[in-house]
UniProtKB/TrEMBL annotation:
UniProt keyword annotation of Signal present: yes
Pfam families reported for this sequence: Dirigent
Keywords: Apoplast, Secreted, Signal
Gene3D superfamilies the record matches: Allene oxide cyclase-like
Broad class of the protein's primary localization: secreted
Protein name, as recorded: Dirigent protein
UniProt organism field: Papaver atlanticum
Membership in a protein family: Belongs to the plant dirigent protein family.
Amino acid sequence: MGAISAFPLQFCFAVMATALLITPAQANHPHWGETVPYHSPPEKMTKLHFYLHDNLIGSNQTGFRIAEAAITNSSSTFFGATFMVDDPLTEGPDPNSPLVGRAQGLFGASGMNETSLIMGLSLVFTADKKFNGSTISVFTRNAVTYTEREFSIVGGTGFFRFARGFISAKTYWTNGFNSIIEWTCTVVHN
Ligand SMILES: *[C@@H]1O[C@H](CO)[C@@H](O)[C@H](O)[C@H]1NC(C)=O
Ligand SMILES: *[C@@H]1O[C@H](CO)[C@@H](O)[C@H](O)[C@H]1NC(C)=O
Ligand SMILES: *[C@@H]1O[C@H](CO)[C@@H](O)[C@H](O)[C@H]1NC(C)=O
Ligand SMILES: *[C@@H]1O[C@H](CO)[C@@H](O)[C@H](O)[C@H]1NC(C)=O
């Protein structure tokens, strides 16, 4: 009987002790997450122009199918087919023109009744000291059946910290499996 009636009192003490330990300052500013005012430096705009070579077949294959849905093979749009790519980016449309970087990541067929892709790519630049090692993150819909389309830039690293912007993409050449795409990027960054 005594043990049962003592329980609520112990519980109250426990709640009071917890309330005293967590001060309002700690609740708002955990030691692992500090928030301070941010004054953005003047932003710059960089324009980049290059060609992406995406080869799903042939001796220079740079993209491989890694996953699919049960309906993919019977779907007119290959819905669910997912590819991992490591595509070279070159200065000109010729695959042998100077390399500026690579587009690495995933794309998947995301249109049920229309052929379109969802792309999550990291562009890593390797060519010029100014851009070498910096990346641009692209997460976007790609309406591949249109010759001209627009992609979104959602972030970046290095030279392209705080990046946002867009890419005008234009199919330069394709045979349905292998493509050369002209990319014109407009990037705003710190
Ligand atoms: C779909 O087709 C691909 C390519 O022909 C084949 O590798 C794969 O096994 C097929 N998948 C199914 C689920 O039938
Ligand atoms: C593969 O790439 C090399 C070097 O870029 C090029 O010379 C060759 O023509 C390409 N082969 C094919 C089949 O596209
Ligand atoms: C695709 O087309 C089918 C048949 O016309 C329709 O039932 C379905 O709702 C459509 N799906 C989408 C995502 O538009
Ligand atoms: C780019 O960076 C890598 C790694 O630091 C280095 O090996 C390479 O020489 C650099 N290239 C240029 C063009 O700066």
